[in-house]
């Protein structure tokens, strides 16, 4: 494919995809709401073209996407405004179609599945979200897949579990890394002894670029699992051990989140999604590996080392 536009490029996954495109020598466009944030993140890469859009202006999406052959939708919304996910998705899809974009990849989450029925969740697992946020994410996926079914644009959805990495400021694990470096107690979303998996953000970019270039990828959804099953407690132990400290952890479960949620919309949302900590959705990505080949995944130990090194350099 030709030029790829990253809509909502300022986040960790957007930076990972941009890095993969840049490593391949491919020009790309980053689209976001803040010109200053995009300049700070991508201003030094001569392959990056910067465009700004305004979600309040539906036509601005088409202008920002004009000339791109493929797009990746990475747009985030405030956790207390999840009703905006399908609204923004519809706007970007219409803009992409108007601009003549051929292919679109939506980066999704495990939320649309709801409670898992199987130990490993494949793409054909029922999508029966029992939470408001899950329903909004399902509505977003439905819009994306309907656009393909109607022949308007080729689309696909790539679902990721929770992530972490050098640019993962919005990861719920970011505070854990910061606490370990500062020698402080880490606030964690409990319970922390249940199985869980995480994607190291730099691993996502090369997989997304391969997906964009694979015609057979479009018209359905795909899962990308983490680097293995772990627990939050074990993950925390590895982080603190790497900096030579004993773990100091303060887990907060659903009851505590609900209490804080009386005053904080973010905590209220985390309480709603707390089932993911007690009934974790562990993804099966064998279909994706069959489609595009082996999926390179950084081990948790190496990913933790690289994340701590990056955060230490930034602090210095």
UniProtKB/TrEMBL annotation:
Report the GO terms under cellular component.
cytoplasm
Q: Report the coiled-coil segments.
A: none
The residues covered by the NAD-dependent epimerase/dehydratase domain are 6-224
Name of the protein in its database record: Epimerase
Which is one Pfam family of this protein? Epimerase
GO MF term set: aldehyde dehydrogenase (NAD+) activity
Q: What is the lineage of its organism?
A: Bacteria, Pseudomonadati, Pseudomonadota, Alphaproteobacteria, Rhodospirillales
The region annotated as signal peptide is none
